[in-house]
Amino acid sequence: MAVRFKDFTPVDYMPGEDELIKRQAVKRKKxxxxxxxxxxVEPTDEALTMQQRRAKARTMKRMxxxxxxxxxxxxxxxxxxxxxxxxxxxxxxxxxxxxLTKGIPKSELTPARKQEIExxxxxxxxxxxxxxxxxxxxxxxxELGRKRGG
Length: 150
Prior knowledge:
- The chain is an all-alpha fold.
- It is 63% helix and 0% strand.
- It is built from six helices and no strands.
- The model has no long low-confidence stretch (mean pLDDT 83).
């Protein structure tokens, strides 16, 4: 989220009111979406432009060794609910993408087509969330099965 000049100007939205009510009014004005834990939720705009995609590829290449070590460490542990929720969301997005492309794998799509599909999926926020919620128990079972060695 970009910071604007308006964000730095102090404004008393509700003069003469209690501090708590004022703070809530400021939050409503800023419109900071929060999750169940009360912390700010990251934006769901996941479609990347070509420049962003290239930059991300360079970054990932640079971080390759660190990511490998992290993956190995993570594989030793059981994933927590936050990680499982993230995986479920990703699985839901992939399932919807597969439906939109009529079964064509993402690796065979052109970057422009990928971007178009990601933008379409971004607009389906509630659908992705609903599907992710359905997939969560299956992913949890798969994770437990993986840790048990089954």
